[in-house]
Recover the amino acids of this structure.
């Protein structure tokens, strides 16, 4: 485990060594109430500030992130095990996201003129209030900043409930916003036990909720929020397909497949997990995929040469091993890896299981760790059908030299994103989210900032056109 929770404290543990890192006090009811009261009070003042002033402070948060990149990256690596190189890249991505909303947020929020029967009418974007952000450990900074930056520019305030094993990162994020000059209460971290979350979601001081996590967590939060009629955005699990058609550049696809599967130690919702390969190139792709996978350097994630670190928790490693063993027992073929690595830490060999079919465990379940399932498709249509034969629909990849054909096939893929001849990734300039059990709503771009605003119609009379009868009587 990388975090242990007792009645009044949470202790974080280094997943690479098993060493204890720190112990933090859990907030009780009085602290929770005080935090929510401060958030509500802060939001009344924050929403009244000009959007350019709010954006300027988000830009200052980007400056603080860059200034503290090394220490923030080291903290993330020690708490959840990602490689230091990837942790530094994550911090930089957060800064880029802040810059994006500092630049584009005022435009996204500008009133939009609309033609109607009025003398003047327009659509305005008003903040909702306090956004509760419930976030996971796998990208401990980016998951938070991609929600917080647009919400803050829009005039909302944010209360964060982070995963216990990255409590240090959660508190560091709060300090970033404080040191960037945000007024007290605009961003706060709650260190709370899971049993307290239902009451916090239901609390009338919370206006809306965003969650990144498992479908179980998403369903539970959506149920409580729905009961109280609160807006939610859910980014949940994924089992992304990585389709390689017969005309693809096989070597390029195999190299990218390694990165797409084993990034973040394989612990990413949008990592490619099901590699669906058209039959004529199946063997060539598998050979290259195995060869490049065996070149991955495993070791201390704080060392720059390391490409694969430990899983974040011991139970995650155990569950991954269960999925691999079950799939092999069901008829899959172990191509490389396939076992936990002896010694301290939650290390697992980078693993590829070939000859997987749609009935097998690694096809049906999300694998959250360094293990890939390789599936044979008879043709492109079969590949799409296999990709869609999943309860998830977050992202996906399609490799082919025929771009027109790829775009036609992309329209049939049941996923929130399709990346052609590339790797699925989130980008502040593009909307991000999923369908089916991968959740609903969108983050990033203009779509993300508009999720947590009141899209308000403003109509100014008198009527002035031939369609005035449309407003003469109520329609509901």
């Amino acid at each position: 485990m990388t975090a242990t929770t007792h009645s009044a404290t949470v202790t974080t543990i280094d997943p690479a060594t098993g060493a204890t890192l720190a112990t933090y006090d859990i907030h009780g009811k009085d602290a929770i109430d005080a935090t929510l009261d401060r958030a509500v009070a802060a939001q009344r003042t924050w929403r009244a500030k000009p959007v350019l002033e709010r954006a300027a402070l988000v830009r200052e948060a980007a400056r603080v992130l860059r200034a503290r990149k090394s220490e923030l990256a080291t903290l993330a690596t020690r708490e959840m095990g990602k490689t230091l190189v990837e942790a530094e890249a994550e911090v930089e991505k957060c800064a880029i996201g802040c810059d994006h909303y500092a630049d584009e947020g005022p435009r996204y929020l500008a009133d939009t003129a609309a033609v109607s029967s009025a003398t003047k009418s327009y659509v305005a974007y008003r903040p909702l209030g306090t956004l509760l952000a419930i976030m996971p450990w796998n990208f401990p900074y980016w998951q938070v900043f991609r929600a917080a930056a647009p919400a803050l520019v829009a005039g909302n305030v944010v209360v964060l409930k982070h995963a216990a094993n990255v409590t240090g990162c959660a508190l560091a994020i709060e300090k970033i916003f404080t040191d960037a000059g945000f007024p007290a209460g605009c961003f706060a971290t709650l260190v709370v036990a899971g049993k307290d979350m239902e009451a916090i979601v239901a609390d009338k001081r919370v206006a809306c909720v965003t969650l990144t996590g498992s479908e179980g967590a998403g369903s539970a939060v959506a149920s409580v929020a729905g009961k109280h009629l609160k807006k939610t955005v859910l980014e949940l699990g994924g089992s992304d397909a990585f389709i390689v058609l017969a005309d693809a550049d096989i070597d390029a696809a195999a190299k990218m497949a390694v990165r797409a599967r084993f990034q973040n130690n394989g612990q990413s919702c949008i990592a490619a997990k099901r590699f669906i390969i058209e039959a004529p190139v199946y063997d060539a792709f598998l050979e290259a995929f195995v060869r490049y996978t065996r070149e991955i350097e495993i070791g201390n994630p704080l060392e720059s040469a390391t490409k694969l670190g430990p899983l974040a928790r011991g139970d995650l490693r155990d569950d991954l091993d269960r999925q691999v063993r079950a799939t092999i027992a069901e008829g899959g073929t172990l191509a490389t890896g396939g076992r936990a690595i002896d010694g301290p830490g939650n290390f697992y060999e980078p693993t590829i299981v070939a000859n997987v079919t749609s009935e097998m465990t690694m096809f049906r379940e999300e694998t959250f760790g360094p293990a890939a399932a390789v599936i044979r498709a008879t043709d492109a249509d079969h590949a799409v059908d296999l990709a869609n034969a999943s309860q998830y629909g977050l992202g996906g990849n399609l490799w082919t030299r025929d771009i027109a054909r790829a775009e036609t096939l992309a329209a049939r893929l049941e996923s929130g994103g399709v990346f052609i001849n590339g790797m699925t990734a989130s980008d502040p300039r593009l909307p991000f989210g999923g369908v089916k059990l991968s959740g609903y709503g969108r983050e990033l771009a203009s779509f993300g900032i508009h999720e947590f605003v009141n899209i308000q119609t403003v109509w100014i009379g008198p009527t002035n056109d031939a369609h005035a009868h449309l407003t003469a009587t109520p329609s509901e």
